[in-house]
TrEMBL record:
GO cellular component labels: plasma membrane
Pfam families: CCG (PF02754)
GO molecular function ontology, one term from the record: 4 iron, 4 sulfur cluster binding
Alphabetized PANTHER family for the sequence: IRON-SULFUR-BINDING OXIDOREDUCTASE FADF-RELATED, IRON-SULFUR-BINDING OXIDOREDUCTASE FADF-RELATED-RELATED
Keywords: 4Fe-4S, Iron, Iron-sulfur, Metal-binding, Oxidoreductase
This protein's name: Cysteine-rich domain-containing protein
C-alpha cells in the first residue's frame, strides 16, 4: 500500500522468495518483505513505477546449486516467459542470488531479452547521471560484501558509492573486505550447519571490532544468516555478536524520508 506500480512498465522489480521467507524465519525475526517495500519506495523516488509480476517464481538458485537442474530449468523457463510476455526492458533485483542466477546461469538455459541490474548499481548510476541527493542519516556503519554480488559479479564499488553519498554516514571497513570479504556462512539453506555458524560468528565479531553501530548488507540471505547466528536457541552462551543489521536499500529508503 502507498507504493506505485504499473502493469505497463518497462522496468520489473523481481521479488523472488521474500514472501515465503517471512513465515519461515519469523522467530529470528527477519522481515524480508521490508526490503521489497523499501525497494519499491526507492524506485518510486527515482520516478520508476515498476511491474511487480504476480506470476513470477523463485529464480531457482538453490535448486541449481544442490543439483536439481530439472527444477531449475522449469523455473528459468517460466520466469523468462513471463518477462518476455510483459515486454519489460529491465529487471531490477535487491537479492544478489536472484541477480547472479539471471545474469550468469539463465543464459545457459533460456534467452532473456532484457537488461538485469542490482538496485545498488541503479542507485550508483543515478548518483552520477542525475545527482541523486539524500537526507542526512547520522550513523557509523560497516558493509558486508555478499559473495554473489562481490566475488561472483565483481560489484564492490556501487554499494559503497551509495553509502558514501548519504550525509552523516561514516563507513568503516572490516579487516576483510571486498575480494577478501568473509562469507556470511552459507548460501543454500540445506548446507547450514555448525561450521557455517562459526563463520557467521567470526564475521559478526569482525563487524563489531570496527566500532560500527550497524552492519549493512545488500543481500536478504546474508541478513537472515547473521540474524540466525544472533539468536540463542538454548546453546551455551558464546561471545557478544549483537549488532544492528540493515539492508542497504532500507537505509536508502530511510534517507529519502517521506
Amino acid at each position: 500500500d502507498g507504493y506505485r506500480t504499473s502493469e505497463k512498465s518497462d522496468v520489473m522489480l523481481f521479488i523472488g522468495c521474500s514472501p515465503y521467507f517471512e513465515p519461515v524465519f519469523e522467530d529470528i525475526p527477519m522481515r524480508t518483505l521490508n526490503i521489497a517495500e523499501a525497494s519499491l519506495k526507492v524506485l518510486n523516488s527515482l520516478g520508476i513505477e515498476p511491474l511487480v509480476h504476480p506470476d513470477e517464481r523463485c529464480c531457482g538458485h538453490d535448486a541449481l546449486w544442490v543439483g536439481d537442474v530439472e527444477t531449475f530449468k522449469k523455473l528459468a523457463e517460466h520466469n523468462a516467459a513471463i518477462i518476455k510476455e510483459s515486454g519489460v526492458k529491465k529487471v531490477i533485483f535487491f537479492c544478489p542470488e536472484c541477480y547472479r542466477t539471471f545474469k550468469l546461469d539463465y543464459p545457459d538455459y533460456v534467452k532473456l531479452d532484457c537488461e538485469v541490474m542490482h538496485i545498488s548499481e541503479l542507485l550508483a548510476q543515478r548518483l552520477e547521471t542525475e545527482g541523486l541527493r539524500f537526507n542526512e542519516v547520522k550513523r557509523k556503519v560497516t558493509y558486508q560484501d555478499p559473495c554473489r554480488l562481490g566475488r561472483h559479479l565483481g560489484i564492490y564499488d556501487a554499494p559503497r558509492k551509495v553509502l558514501q553519498a548519504i550525509p552523516g554516514i561514516e563507513l568503516v571497513e572490516m579487516e576483510h573486505n571486498r575480494e577478501e570479504s568473509i562469507c556470511c556462512g552459507t548460501s543454500c539453506f540445506t548446507n547450514c550447519d555448525s561450521y557455517s555458524k562459526q563463520i557467521r560468528v567470526e564475521r559478526l565479531l569482525e563487524a563489531k571490532a570496527t566500532g560500527a553501530e550497524t552492519l549493512i548488507t545488500s543481500c536478504p540471505k546474508c541478513q537472515t544468516h547473521f540474524r540466525c547466528a544472533m539468536v540463542n536457541k538454548g546453546e551455551e552462551k558464546g561471545p557478544d555478536i549483537e549488532i544492528e543489521l540493515m539492508d542497504l536499500v532500507n537505509l536508502v529508503a530511510t534517507s529519502l524520508g517521506g
